[in-house]
Every structure is written in structure tokens, then in C-alpha cells.
Amino acid sequence: MKENLSINLKNASGFISYEEVIALAQQSVRHIDTLNAGTGAGNDFLGWLSLPDDIIQQLDRIENTALHLRSVSDLTVVIGIGGSYLGARAVIEALSHSFSPLLKSTHHDIVYAGQNICEDYLSELLEILDGRNYSIIAISKSGTTTEPAIAFRILKDHLEKKIGKEAAGSRIIAITDSRKGALRSMAETNGYESFVIPDNVGGRYSVLTPVGLLPIAISGIDIRMLVNGAKKMEELTRKNKNASSNPALLYAAARNLILQSGKSIEIMVGFTPKLHFMAEWWKQLYGESEGKDGKGIFPASVDMTTDLHSLGQYIQDGQRILFETMISVESPSRMVTIPEEKDDSDQLNYIAGKRLSEVNHNAEKGTTLAHNDGGVPIVSITIPTLDAYYTGQIIYFFEIACAISGYILDVNPFDQPGVEAYKTNMFALLNKPGFEAAGKKLKERI
Ligand code: PA5
User: Fold this and answer.
1) Out of 309, 342, 441, 444, which one is annotated catalytic?
2) Is 383 among the domain residues?
3) Do residues 126 and 205 share a domain?
4) CATH number for the domain including 62?
5) Catalytic residue, candidates 266, 288, 364, 399
6) How does pLDDT run across 21-78, given as a tens digit for each residue?
7) Could you give the strand order of the β-sheet that contains 378-385, starting from the edge strand earlier in sequence?
């Protein structure tokens, strides 16, 4: 078993050569230098690079707040959208019991709001919260994003009516900018405990700030191990100029070469449903960082073996514009073996006595070979096991590889100008003050 996250390009070798990957990876060391020197595009947003060290001093406070919320409530609603919730959810879903809500132990439930404006979703959540003893974490760097702001207004009102304004105030935590935005002013006016999202850390790179760490700590996950894992990955990537042993340089170089060979869609593939939200986080990280100026690889994801029975057909046989990044977990944390059955009525005795992980690994190997034969290059990323330490490695690995990859593509990986377009139209259509003229023009088009 390898000690750290590792990358294997063997199943991409029919499409790109290892020599060209090494050459581009070695050339890309300059992008690490640029990140370290803070001289590249988006250099106002490089705080995430040193978070594994910088966040240590805040861990006691984050853990104490988590303990406080766990002691006064048995459920926390995490309000946020995009980078303000996906990292926390990715880690919590990867490391928690798959059936958490059904556990009757000392477990603390986490639910999410503010990622949509669906009336039924929020109404159903309110129905659940009527009968629960809950807290709220409101997360928004700008403090003004519409989706979480609406959810927060509704849930704050619900909690205040349920337990009174003062008690509600002690169960609401705000995570936002140090000075700007409506959430900061509300925290100050109402005396909510609050955490700061550093100015130099963008939403999608913020999982190792209180944005991710507070919800993760509340769910009972060891945030120190998570940060330790990220720190190890910082050593292996940010501080490593040897391309052949730097997994982030290799990944960034390989995916750009595969793009140049005509494959413009990258599918993240996991063979455990626990990685579903890790892929959602990754899609936002790469989609928002690279998809601009008419450039970028479109990030998609599938859960295997589930999706072998839906999108598997397309991946095997559809348009040859895809490549896969497969995340392998070497050892599961638990054990289930397939029992022997006397009459073998379901004809499964040929795998009796085997662990499910052995069957799953063979499904993974079989899929890799089949997709490769079907013209799909595959980049394999392996972690020894899915725990807090290796999840920390995954996070830092994908963050720094994304920044390097963005620089290879010659885009600013830290801005997201395209996100504003829908907001302007929505505000105009809702007659937000200041948007009247734009609203008039849009309404003529509908
Ligand atoms: O990564 C990003 O910057 C975005 O996805 C933001 O996190 C998202 O738009 C939410 O913004 P805010 O935290 O300001 O509410």
C-alpha cells in the first residue's frame, strides 16, 4: 500500500506519452514558482496555499464552537452555495456513516439549505425543523448571495419564533467577510458568533477555513487529521519541484495534454457513493476556475458501479470526446464478505468468501480496461483509504493542481466573472432597485 495519494498515467499512455507529460510537468514548475511568488493572475486570492499552517491557530476555536452547537442542538442547518458549502459537504459525506440520519446514537445531523430556491425543498425542511432542536451556520463570503440570503431569512425567522430571539442568537453562527456584506452587519447587530473568511481565499478554495472546517467538526470528523493530510500534500506538491514525483504537476500536465488531443470532457469517477459530493466539489473547483475565455475542460462525474448501468454506455461507445479521472480507494474501512449458499440458486458461489471490496476492485479494473479499449484515456488517482487524513490530501492536491492547470491554460483560475450574468438577469426580472431598465429590456424578450 502506498503512503500517500498517488497518480498513475498507465491508462492514458495510448493517448499521450509519459515523456510529453514529464516535459510539460517540468515546464509547469514555473507555475508553482509564480504561485509561491504571488506574481500571476488572481494573485489576490492565494491565501489557500498556506492554509494547512495558517489555520492551525483557529482550530481550538472551531472545535469549541462545534462542541457548543452539538451540546445545544442535535441538528445543524448549513446555509451556503457553491464554494460556501460544497467542500464541507464533500468531506462530511465522504467520512460519515452512509445512513447517518437513521443512526440512533449520539450522532448530530447536518442538513443543507441555500443551494437552491426550491419552495418545496425549504418547506419540507421547515416541516422537519418544527420538530427538531437545531442550530444554523450561515456561510457567505460576499454576505449578499441571493440563495443563502433567502434561506437564512426564512430559517432565522423560524428559529426565532420557535425558541425566542435571544436563544436563537446563541445558535446562529455567521461565517463571512471581516467587514463587508449584509451577513457581517447582521452578525454584529444581533451578536452572532462569527468567523472570518480571509480576503485572499476564494469560495471554492475555502474548505480548509471555518467555511468547511466548522460544519465538518460539528459532524464529528477530526479536522486536525484533515489539515495534517493537506499539509503533507502541500509538501509533496507546492514544495516539490521534481515533476516526476509531484502528483499535482503530473495531473495538471496530463489533463491539458489530453485536452490538446481532442478530449474536452473530464469525468470524475468514484467507485464508492461516498465520493459523490467530492466530485461535486471538484466540478465546481475546476469548472469555475478554468471555464472562461472560451477555454477549459468541462468537468462531469459519475458514481460507479451505479452509472455503468446508465452513462456507462455513452462513456464506452458515444462521442470520443471524454476522458476519465478515476479515484481509487485501496482499502475500505469496514468488511462484508459474500456468504456461501448451498444450492447456489443465484449462481454467485464463484465469489463466495470474497470481500465486496475485491469484487468492486475487479469491477474498477474491468471498467478501466473496457473504457480504455473504447478510446477513453484514464488518469488514476489512488488513496490508501478514505479517512480524514487522505481526504485532506485529496483537497490540497486538487486545489493546487487546479491552479497549475489554470495557468497552463492561461486563464485566471481564481475569478468567476461568468457567474454574474444570471444574477443580473434575475435581479432585473425581480425588479430589484437599480435594475429597472435592464428588467424592461429582458421582459420584452420573454
Ligand atoms: O467559489 C466561489 O467563489 C463561488 O462558488 C462562491 O462560493 C459562491 O458563489 C457563493 O458566494 P458567497 O460565499 O459570496 O455567498
Assistant:
1) 309
2) yes
3) yes
4) 3.40.50.10490
5) 288
6) 999 999 999 999 999 999 999 999 999 999 999 999 999 999 999 999 999 999 999 9
7) 6-8, 378-385, 322-331, 265-270, 298-303
pLDDT digit string, tens, across residues 129-175: 999 999 999 999 999 899 999 999 999 999 999 999 999 999 999 99
Is the Cβ atom of 145 under 6 angstroms away from ligand 1? Answer: yes
Give the pLDDT confidence score for residue 429 in this predicted structure: 87
Q: Which domain holds residue 52?
A: 47-223
81 lines ligand 1 (CB under 6 A): yes
Q: What is the pLDDT of residues 258-281, one digit of tens each?
A: 999 999 999 999 999 999 999 999
Q: Measuring from atom 15 of ligand 1, which residue has the nearest CA?
A: 140
145 shares a domain with 257 = no
Q: Is residue 285 part of a domain?
A: yes
Q: Measure 139 CA to ligand 1 centroid, in angstroms.
A: 9
Q: Which atom of ligand 1 is nearest to the CA of 142?
A: 14
Please check whether residue 415 lies inside any domain of the structure: no
Among 142, 184, 285, name the best residue to mutate to test ligand 1's pocket (greatest count of ligand atoms within 8 A of Cβ). 142
Return the pLDDT at 443. Answer: 84
The predicted pLDDT at position 91 comes to 98
Measured CA angle at 145 (ends 73, 173), to 5 deg? 25
pLDDT of 2 reads 67
> Is 266 a known active-site residue?
no
Residues 186 and 284 in one domain: no
Asked if residue 281 and residue 147 are part of one domain, the reply reads: no
Is 309 one of the annotated active-site residues of the chain? Answer: yes
Q: How many domains does the chain have?
A: 2
Reduced to 3 states (helix: H, G, I; strand: E, B; else coil), residue 221 is: coil
> For ligand 1, atom 9, which residue shows the shortest CA distance?
82
Among 63, 85, 109, which residue's Cα sits nearest to residue 207?
A: 85
Same domain, 292 and 387: yes
Q: Is 142 in the pocket of ligand 1 (CB under 6 A)?
A: yes
Query: Domain check: are 380 and 277 in the same one?
Result: yes
- Distance in Å from the first CA to the final CA of the chain: 59
**Which stretches of the chain score pLDDT less than 70?**
1-2, 106
In a domain, 263, yes or no: yes
Are 54 and 191 in the same domain?
Answer: yes
What pLDDT, on the 0 to 100 scale, is given for residue 23? 98
Q: What is the pLDDT of residue 106?
A: 67
Same domain, 213 and 354: no
Tally the residues of the chain. Answer: 446
* DSSP-assigned states of every residue in 350-415: GGTT-BHHHHHHHHHHHHHHHHHHTT--EEEEEEEE-SHHHHHHHHHHHHHHHHHHHHHHTS-TT-
